[in-house]
Amino acid sequence: MRARTAAPLACAAALAVLLSTAPPAGAATGRLEMYSAPGLNYHVIEGGGCHNFSERAVSYADSTPVATYRFYTGRDCTGMVLGAGRDATQWIPPLLRARSVDLRFED
Q1: What are phi and psi of 49, to 5 degrees?
Q2: CA distance 76 to 50
Q3: Cα dihedral sign for 55, 60, 66, 71?
Q4: Dihedral over Cα of 35, 40, 44, 50: its sign
Q5: Which residues of the chain have pLDDT under 50?
Q6: Is the dihedral of CA 86, 90, 92, 97 positive or negative?
Q7: Where are the domains of the chain?
Q8: 11 in helix, strand or coil?
Q9: Does domain 28-105 have CATH number 2.60.20.10?
Q10: What is the rounded distance in angstroms from the CA atom of residue 35 to the CA atom of residue 47?
Q11: Which helix (H) or strand (E) holds 20?
């Protein structure tokens, strides 16, 4: 009888380990590629939420998969909103002095 109960317990333990390492359902995954000018100052951000980076100009951003994003003048997505975009967006003139971005991937 002991062998019959050990197998389901081992299976349940293995399933718990697998579920604990998997991202939660609906987790924000993806990437945002940014440029200050065509081909210049390339920077990639992975994952959703608020991200800080060194002060920069942003003239083009492209997300994979589709996301909406807002660039801010302050760190931690504070300060003034410089501009917002969705998927692939270009700004002319570029957004100057961006220091953070709030990135939200669509389901």
Answers
A1: 100, -165
A2: 6
A3: positive
A4: negative
A5: 9-27
A6: positive
A7: 28-105
A8: helix
A9: yes
A10: 18
A11: helix 2-21
Do 5 and 80 form a contact (C-beta atoms < 8 A)?
Answer: no
Instruction: Please tell me the predicted confidence (pLDDT) of residue 3.
Output: 54
Give the pLDDT of residue 77.
98
pLDDT at 18: 35
Distance separating alpha carbons of residues 35 and 93, to the nearest angstrom: 13
Residue 81: which of 63, 69, 90, 89 has the closest Cα? 69
Average pLDDT value over all residues in the chain: 82
Task: Report the alpha-carbon distance of residue 50 to residue 100 in Å, rounded.
Answer: 7
